[in-house]
Amino acid sequence: MSRVAKNPISLPKGVDLQVTASNVSVKGAKGSLNFTLPKGVLLEQDGQTFTVAVDSITRNAALSGTVRAIVANMVKGVSEGYERRLQLVGVGYRASTQGKVVNLAVGLSHPVNYPIPEGISVETPSQTEIVIRGADKQVVGQVAAHLRSYRPPEPYKGKGVRYLGEKVVMKEAKKK
Description:
By secondary structure, the chain is α+β, with helices and mostly antiparallel strands. 19% of the residues lie in helices and 39% in strands.
């Protein structure tokens, strides 16, 4: 078994984790998440901590660390939540939210209207900043990646949608 899988998962206050035969459901203040366990991987309870074990028959130890990381991310997501921040860099680049749609003006010939999936909240504190929040780490990251994919930062002027704090390596302009 991997070193990651050997670490126990401790539950903070207000988080409820239920394990059935092949399903894990976690409920907390920020929402509820479900995950289907792969065959051969078990989740064992010891008071307020959970450990990942491998079934002795199938011995599917390759997924034990992955399952532990996913369940730990679910526990953190329903108790604290996840957040990604995007920054728009460029003249005329703006973002706004209207209901369950994010509107982007990023230098294309048409405005981009991105529908927000369930369980995710998107805010625009300013016209050049987007804040994505949710309980599911994978969905928050995927929404941020989709919004960034409309105009990734280009290496000559640095214009585009970038993650907050992302360093863009600038290239030198072509010389005659």
